[in-house]
Amino acid sequence: MTTIERAEVLVAGPGRNFVTLRLTTSDGVTGLGDATLNGRELAVASYLRDHVVPLLIGKDPARIEDMWQYLYRGAYWRRGPVTMTAIAAVDTALWDVKGKVAGLPVFQLLGGRSREGVLVYCHASGTDTASLVDDVARFRDLGYQAVRAQAAVPEVGGTYGVRKGLIYEPAATSLPDEQPWSTEAYLRFAPTYLEAVRDRLGFDFHLLHDVHHRLTPIEAARFGKRVEDVQLFWMEDPTPAENQESFRLIRSHTTTPIAVGEVLNSIWDVQHLITEQLIDYVRTTVVHAGGITHLRRIFDLAALYGVRTGSHGATDLSPVTQSAAVHLDLVVPNFGIQEYMEHAPETMEVFRSGVRFENGMLHPSEEPGLGVEYDDAAAERFPYDPRYLPVARRLDGSLHDW
Ligand code: GCO
Ligand code: MG
Known about the structure:
Elements: E1 4-12, E2 18-25, E3 30-34, H1 41-56, H2 64-73, H3 81-102, H4 106-109, E4 118-126, H5 129-141, E5 146-151, E6 178-181, H6 183-201, E7 206-210, H7 217-226, E8 234-236, H8 246-251, E9 258-260, H9 267-275, E10 281-282, H10 291-304, E11 308-309, H11 319-329, E12 338-339, H12 345-350, E13 351-353, E14 356-358, E15 361-363, E16 372-374, H13 376-380, E17 391-394, E18 399-400
Parallel strand pairs: 4-5, 4-12, 5-7, 6-17, 7-8, 8-9, 9-10, 10-11
Antiparallel strand pairs: 1-2, 2-3, 4-15, 13-16, 14-15, 17-18
Helix pairs in contact: 1-3, 2-3, 3-10, 5-6, 9-10
The structure holds D-gluconic acid (GCO) and magnesium ion (MG).
């Protein structure tokens, strides 16, 4: 019987920090899984090295579902970002192996294409309304059919989602940067720049906006109602999702579509959001929600309730997650959209990926498995260096959700 012979936990910082699991079978086939949890990378690396790798050696790599159940049920302590990211890495690597053994790209194993390509949205931002509008126009010229728009709130300086330079890099400091926040200033300003984008550039593309957990439910309801004429594709994370009931309140006031889930890790975290039809798009990802196996289960539940997919795809998710996401997105009937940010050139030196962008869509490679290779020699040049996301403080000094 073929077995898992080797399991390596690879930690590197090519442009930003990534944790990667590489499995090698007794037949010499390798598979990659992303295990990156931004700002808590080493917790997952230890969970894998110390507690999961010893369980993998000698096991049958073909039994993906059984391995998932074993790592989930067998741990006793369930769910949570660290656990689910570690399970995701194993699951993704096993799908990669299965594809290579079968000689088929993973999307073929998942049921084959339902569409020709995967619609993506990119991140436009500006330090003010004028520079934001220019940035949205620039992305339209590059062929994007869907653009997320964020601008710095004048009274508080920068805010979530505003790029410095060409690549958006919020985890930039060795201790968390503290950024000021004013809900009042945001609520006054944000609707005006979204309106300016539509006034200047029209309605023939999808416009998205990420609130990034900053509002209370009733503030979010007011925001959603205020921007209805802008016809957002979605407003994302309008309020923190710990209390799933919050979304009922928002929904009872506005028809602006809601997207939630990038920080949620299991089907149980999104169960009420989906079955009560409190959201329109579920943003759970391969890497943070238990891998391809578990994400497929979430997406199938969502399909029953008219909820579409819109997976997280920022640059702190490695090209392995990006590829796995594209394979799954290509197949699921209730696909909505996929987030896409170009990784830094250093990242792409380490992860050689066959995913390509064309006319606002991503396409997987036709290579067997996921079509991503890890370059160890390149990774050596980029050691891990601790980096943290910022935190937000209100103008009175108290902590706010970032
Ligand atoms: C998004 C996200 C990211 C996160 C980041 C945190 O919608 O892309 O909100 O920008 O903040 O991935 O690690
Ligand atoms: Mg987001």
